[in-house]
Amino acid sequence: MNTQSNPGALAEGAPLPLIFVIEDDADVARLILAALKDFGFAAEAFATGASVLRRIQLEKPDLCVVDLGLPDMDGLDLVRRLTAESDAGVLILTGRGHTADRVMGLELGGDDYVIKPFEPRELVARIRSILRRRSALQGLPGNKRRRYASFVGWRLDCAANLLRGPDGVEHLLGTAETQVLRCFVERPHQILTREQLMGNRDLLPTDRSIDVRISRLRKRIEPDASDPTLIKTVYGAGYMFAADVSWA
């Protein structure tokens, strides 16, 4: 691979991130695989949800690209299964124009979505953005990161994506939720923009993915999600986490 002609390629000798592409249209799957391999990813394609669920029992991908229109199961059900049964990131690829489908995909643990028809290079850029956010969240080898954050009776285990409530009940968060909550607890009492909370990704004015994640977090940790006191909206600026945080 010529890294000079491809500035986004991985450094020589670096392990290749493994991407599973779940897409029943063979032409679309070939297009995605070619783009991924050109930019230095290892990739496998699956035409059904059942086949990829069998595969993840043997090999764990870094990220899955999931088409919502699959022949054997609803793509949203597959997103839920993948986030429950693996630690892979999930990018939803959909031809559905309904906002409800995209919002539900994010609610079920999807990290991002792309609407068909799509530009392959944009798809790759979004995949790389998800992987960067996950790498920053999990920590690189040898990088000692603070793991446990406590605030108003809650305790977040950043390494395991577990949130323990004041009542002792544990909630398994999706990677996207954990990434946003970690941004908040690392910088309490600071205004954070939507771009900062999404890993500095350029957001379109119509992109509501961060709002979905904020809503989910409020429902989990706020005494009254309709009148939030922990995650405050700063109109025209972003959001602020209004709680003291201690680390262990």
From TrEMBL:
CDD domains in UniProt: REC_OmpR, trans_reg_C
4-aspartylphosphate modification, residue list: D67
InterPro entries attached to this UniProt entry: CheY-like_superfamily, OmpR/PhoB-type_DNA-bd, Sig_transdc_resp-reg_C-effctor, Sig_transdc_resp-reg_receiver, WalR-like, WH-like_DNA-bd_sf
Domain OmpR/PhoB-type: residue ranges: 146-243
GO biological process: regulation of DNA-templated transcription
Keyword DNA-binding assigned: yes
Coiled coil regions, renumbered to chain: none
Gene Ontology CC terms: cytosol; protein-DNA complex
Gene Ontology MF term list: phosphorelay response regulator activity; transcription cis-regulatory region binding
Listed transmembrane segments: none
Gene3D superfamilies: 3.40.50.2300, 6.10.250.690, Winged helix-like DNA-binding domain superfamily/Winged helix DNA-binding domain
Domain called Response regulatory: residue spans: 18-131
PROSITE patterns, per the entry: OMPR_PHOB, RESPONSE_REGULATORY
Keyword tags: DNA-binding, Phosphoprotein, Transcription, Transcription regulation, Two-component regulatory system
DNA-binding region location: 146-243
Superkingdom of the organism of origin: Bacteria
Protein name: DNA-binding response regulator
Species of the source: Comamonas serinivorans
